[in-house]
Design a protein that fits this description.
The complex is a heterodimer of chains A (270) and B (317). Chain A is 78% helix and 0% strand. Chain A is mainly alpha-helical. In chain B, helix 3 crosses helix 4 and helix 8 packs across helix 11. Classes of the chains: A mainly alpha (270), B alpha/beta (317).
């Protein structure tokens, strides 16, 4: 009896919007609900940069007077680096989440629906990026309390760069997770990649302090340009070509990440 | 509903190429419950995943729910409900969140999706569980939720991969009722895989026995059992010698063998042929104390076809 009644309500509805965007939003809402059920994780991810701010930044005050330290005060040099670090480390571990989802079977369940593959992925990346933007804004405001002074536009440019990095690294992390399908393989891969990226980007100490060979090596790391651009933006030096180069580098990394992740996710066995 | 020809799939592994499915022909008509029966590693899941567009076949063609598998996979996905062996729910999610999200992915509006979630919960005995976290559900409830998730778009065709694995006997029987209702009341066509004989026997109109990636036999459960081994009829008799003589004269009685306190014969249809045989014994003056008819199990069928028992879960060589 109940079955017949239900049949009446179970008529297919035609799709009106762009399916990819619609599916992105469905997945974004789904993932946000899950995240907000355990909001404590959003805070935990922020503890590390806060510790850097409280326990490492004071060490920079004397170093800021050293020859070779870039223009701007210690905070203006250090906080952009910290924001980029948050962008990298806050996003690169999302691949563990997709491995868990593969194990739950939710990924396969969604893939068997006619939903857009890119949409299924973009909804997750959108959540990760939004979380990151909130964290970056909070961190910047807390740094102001500590003594940071910077132009508002500079902070907005830097946070935009952080957002692009978030898109890039969460995409690449999802691609790696889909490809490896194992936490035990993903963890060493992330360590292997993250440490050189971190050391060669001048996040902790500016590369202007580095000897020539190290500085040249860092030039090859797109993240070092991103950091340079953020620092120029934080000083309010918008005419510096570093700002444009930083934005372009972050944008290119985002496009590259999305392309790799989309290709991986389209693959049948992913 | 499904028409597949020469469907095959090979996997490349570090040790070489594995032929998981080697050329399967398969026909399922609307309203049928068809079972793919075979041991683990026989190629059941691979076959289903190919037909569900989750794996691209290495060879072969198929039409699923009127759509060509290779040319129109999106069309297939729209028509098909797929419930995988391990299910597909996030334990941290609530029941209705999963149901509405899945319905929305099929293009259903949000308000409509909520209606469907409610309707499906009611039909699958999950009525009051909409707000419950999935990790708090019992095994049987979780399995019914998996099935509900495969039905959010009211598909004409549903694939169930090992639907009752890991359930206790009570939940299992309950699940079978729901699967039967799905066909009887909603006219849904069902293709399920199982390595349980009782499940294939209890649910399926037709069974395809699959072994080492090939279909080795097809038929209704009864046909298969009869075709392979026939029924065993055992007579308890006082005069085994005379009885043997009488039964050997009858063309329908095959393999007359003496057993303890009597004789065993193999016949095509036990219920129909046992009584005439007994009357013949009676007419010849042999006293028949008891009569027993035994049907071969699907395991006997499998053993006859492949030389291996279905219960050996050994991977294929």
């Amino acid at each position: 009896m109940t079955w017949q009644l239900h049949l009446a309500t179970l008529t297919p509805t035609p799709r009106l919007e762009v399916p990819m965007l619609r599916d992105t939003m469905i997945i974004f809402r789904y993932q946000m609900r899950l995240l907000l059920r355990e909001p404590v994780w959003i805070i935990i991810v922020m503890i590390q940069p806060l510790l850097y701010l409280a326990l490492f930044a004071p060490l920079l005050e004397p170093i800021a007077k050293t020859k070779g330290f870039p223009p701007g005060d210690a905070w203006q040099v250090f906080v952009p680096g910290l924001l980029i670090q948050l962008g990298i480390f806050g996003s690169m571990f999302v691949g563990f989440g997709i491995i868990a989802e593969i194990r739950f079977g939710t990924i396969e369940r969604m893939r068997v629906s006619p939903a857009s593959r890119l949409g299924l992925l973009m909804g997750r990346i959108l959540r990760d990026t939004l979380v990151l933007l909130v964290q970056a804004t909070l961190l910047t405001l807390i740094a102001v309390v500590f003594g940071l002074r910077m132009p508002v536009l500079g902070a907005i440019i830097t946070i935009a760069i952080v957002g692009l990095l978030g898109v890039s690294l969460s995409s690449l992390s999802y691609a790696a997770g889909l490809w490896l399908k194992s936490e035990d393989a993903l963890a060493p891969l992330l360590n292997m990649v993250s440490v050189p990226v971190l050391l060669l980007s001048g996040i902790l100490l500016p590369m202007t302090l580095a000897p020539g060979w190290l500085r040249h090596l860092a030039q090859a790391n797109p993240f070092s340009h991103v950091v340079d651009g953020s620092r120029a933006a934080f000083r309010g030096d918008y005419g510096d070509s570093a700002v444009v180069i930083g934005l372009v580098a972050a944008g290119a990394l985002a496009v590259l990440g999305l392309w790799v992740a989309n290709r991986t996710f389209q693959r049948e066995s992913a | 509903m499904i028409e597949a020809r020469g469907l095959a799939r090979t996997f490349k592994t570090r040790t070489g190429t594995v032929e998981a499915v080697r050329g399967i022909d398969l026909d399922v008509t609307a309203g049928e419950i068809v079972g793919l029966l075979g041991p683990n590693g026989a190629g059941k899941t691979t076959t289903q995943r190919m037909l569900a567009t989750l794996l691209v076949p290495t060879a072969g063609e198929a039409t699923v729910a009127g759509c060509d598998l290779r040319r129109d996979p999106i069309g297939v996905r729209r028509q098909l409900g797929y419930v995988s062996q391990s299910g597909g729910t996030n334990p941290a999610c609530k029941v209705d969140e999963e149901l509405t999200t899945q319905a929305e992915l099929y293009g259903v509006s949000r308000a409509d999706a909520r209606e469907r979630a409610k309707a499906l919960r009611e039909t699958l005995d999950l009525a009051d569980l909409g707000d419950r976290l999935i990790k708090s559900l019992s095994g049987g409830q979780r399995r019914r939720l998996d099935i509900a998730l495969g039905l959010v778009h009211a598909p004409k065709l549903v694939f169930l991969d090992e639907p009752s694995t890991g359930l206790d006997p009570h939940s299992r029987a309950n699940l079978w009722t729901h699967i039967r209702n799905l066909r009887d009341r909603m006219k849904t066509t069902i293709l399920l895989t199982t390595h349980y004989l009782d499940e294939a026997d209890a649910l399926c109109d037709r069974i395809l026995i699959i072994d080492h990636g090939k279909i080795v036999a097809t038929g209704t459960p009864e046909e298969l059992k009869r075709r392979i081994s026939g029924d065993l009829v055992t007579f308890d008799v006082d005069d085994a010698v005379k009885a043997t003589e009488v039964l050997r004269a009858r063309p329908e009685a095959r393999d007359v063998t003496p057993v303890e306190r009597g004789l065993r014969v193999t016949v095509d249809k036990g219920e129909e042929q046992a009584l005439p045989l007994m009357r013949a014994l009676d007419a010849a003056g042999v006293k028949v104390g008891a009569l027993q008819i035994a049907h071969p199990s699907l395991d006997d069928v499998f053993l006859t076809l492949t030389g291996r028992s279905l219960r050996d879960d050994a991977p294929p060589p």
